[in-house]
Design a protein that fits this description.
182 residues; mainly alpha
Length: 182
């Protein structure tokens, strides 16, 4: 499994990152990693010891539902609040124009719904859509303000998604603990 630093490496030319701000190169890595992700292709397979394995779709989806406070899924709430509370976050911030451009590109490249298993109900698909929308949104923000807020939670989730797994929970009090992964 590639770690997020490998996925988001700085192998891009300045032209590729134009208009995306000081972390444009890393955002280009996000776009490429999302476009190359074979979403959910390894769910149910073994996971390395740095994570806790989740056994079924039902269990994974129930983790999302059980942990959903304040509009965010529980295990992303703490890192999302950390980013949200940063002075660099928000509509009027210096990063806002870069966010808009990155959001359009992520919406174009992510394509996760094409990989949903046919056996999932409409309600399960809706829950995944909501969760993955929050994930990609916070991933962009985390990269954009990475010089202001030392958070890598969403980039760490990206490496699991890219490997075909589904990070769907957290065991512990973030940042201490382990990711739960299907």
């Amino acid at each position: 499994m590639k770690i997020w630093q490998e996925l988001l490496g700085d192998e891009y030319h300045e032209d590729d990152a134009a208009g995306l701000g000081p972390h444009g190169s890393e955002l280009c890595g996000v776009f490429d990693a999302l476009a190359a992700t074979q979403w959910f292709s390894a769910v149910g397979q073994s996971v390395p010891a740095q994570a806790i394995a989740v056994a079924t779709w039902d269990e994974a989806l129930s983790l999302l539902e059980r942990q959903r406070p304040a509009g965010y899924h529980g295990h992303i709430a703490a890192p999302a609040r950390l980013l949200e509370d940063a002075p660099a976050y928000g509509e009027g911030s210096e990063y806002a124009p870069y966010y808009e451009k990155a959001y359009v590109e992520v919406s174009r490249t992510a394509g996760y719904s094409a990989f949903y298993p046919a056996t999932l109900s409409d309600a399960a698909r809706d829950a995944l859509d909501e969760y993955l929308h929050h994930f990609t949104d916070w991933l962009i923000i985390e990269v954009l303000i990475s010089d202001v807020v030392p958070c890598t939670f969403f980039r760490e989730q990206l490496q699991w998604f890219h490997a075909g797994h589904f990070p769907c929970g957290w065991d512990g009090d973030w940042p201490v603990g382990k990711m739960k992964v299907f």
